């Protein structure tokens, strides 16, 4: 009797197996960003004798709130490059590249928002507006709208003046010979490094 009861239940469950999906298979390899400007291993920096800056993870539009690479074929058309996937969302990868580049090129101590409550120094934030491929021009495109509040030097009475916000758009385009995950990853890494270098120059020492 028990076998007769179990058999219909098992047969009823079989069709469901073909309907269940746990997500698409990951690509053979994942993409990441590497900063051209690197920090020496073992080098120690202290905010006691160097200026500091707090770098926030950039905001992103919905098309960049994923680990895929958007491909634009017009002003209103966005698709995603097949088999191309970042190890994490591009705004977090880019924030890390900014941190490495600014540290290496300016000597500033880079802080995160979690550890900068006491004295954040200068503050860099903004939005990563584009981080993908322009299929029409065959280019990788990075557009970063940055906001900067510079250091607030204390006056003779110890008060710190309110510093104005500065805003600047940075853009880099790198040609692509082919539309493949490897080519897109390489070109976007180059474009991101160009933007990060210009941001470091803007921030200054």
Automatic annotation (TrEMBL):
Record's signal peptide: 1-23
Pfam families, alphabetized: ABC_trans_aux
Residue spans crossing the bilayer: none
Residue ranges constituting the ABC-type transport auxiliary lipoprotein component domain according to the UniProt record: 37-200
InterPro entries: ABC_trans_aux
Keyword Signal belongs to the record: yes
Keywords, comma-separated and alphabetical: Signal
UniProt entry tagged with the keyword Signal: yes
Recorded superkingdom: Bacteria
Name of the protein: ABC transporter
The species this protein was found in: Sphingomonas suaedae
